[in-house]
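Chapter summary example.
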Amino acid sequence: YAEEWLRVEPRVKSAEVRRVWPDTVLIEVEERQPVALLNAGLVMIEIDAEGRILARYYVISEMDLPLISGVDLSETPTSAGSWIEGEGIDAALEILRSLPADAADIGEIDVTNTQYIKLYTMNGTEIRLGDSTDFAAKYLAYSTILDDAQRNSDRLIHYIDVSIYTKPVFY
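The structure predicted for these 171 residues follows.
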């Protein structure tokens, strides 16, 4: 009964309750980790890697997580514990799962059109992915261009198009 009650809490991924004789109850909890925020009109919602809504915020003082934009939430409940589903959120979450741990420069993933996905870095550079296929190769192409631009600090990059990752274009 206690395990089921704990699993109702949106931030609890799994829970195990064991009794250790004679007088101990051991509770092991695995917590869901937030990976992104979505704008749901008057509130921002925090989601985990599976698309579960962990929390709703009316005010956000800092954005430590990337924003996912372009997801249609009109038919989706946005209360904590609900699940966000659909092609757009699936594509965005797949991209987040594929990013290397040191790729903390992504500020937004726009999945308005899943055939023309755009990322925005924290400094505003637009990265045009096309669809989400071959993301590892696309990431390598755009991160190489961004690294080169950083080394040559006189070059400002407005956008990078890696939709054809073997022939990236940037301006």
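To summarize the output: The longest helix spans residues 135-151.
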